[in-house]
């Protein structure tokens, strides 16, 4: 179907299937094509002097995968780890990365007319990873470019494409 060669989501082409998940009270959506699998949370092996959002690494079928706590990275009210806490395993530019979230909700098909551009904010609020806001019934989804977030220089995970 040619989906592999797609360009990252932009507000003009932000329709498609999204995996929705919760971080605190908010609900987020990411492009389903970036998702490799969803796993229950297991305590990763810690790495000394790692930033607080990097929980450690796990061995996933022979691949060492860094585990990022998105709740910490995005400054959300971090709930305790419980039975609903999961790791979304992502494939970002050929690298496998795990993202800890409070819970996964569902997969939704979002048409372009449901997605509104993210509001302009002052420089204090980093909106560069937010591609849009979708209202679905009484739910408000914050759509996120997970590839851009995980590729950010401060994450130190993935070399910037040059």
Automatic annotation (TrEMBL):
Q: Span of the secretion signal? A: none
Ranges for the CheW-like domain? 15-155
Compartments, record wording: Cytoplasm
- Spell out the GO cellular component terms annotated for this protein, sorted alphabetically and separated by semicolons: cytosol
Under InterPro entries, the record lists: CheW, CheW-like_dom_sf, CheW-lke_dom
Establish whether keyword Iron is in the entry: no
Q: Which Pfam families match?
A: CheW
Give the source's domain of life in one word: Bacteria
Per UniProt, the keywords (alphabetical) are:
Cytoplasm
GO biological process entries = chemotaxis; signal transduction
> Can you name this protein?
Chemotaxis protein CheW
* The species this protein was found in: Ideonella livida
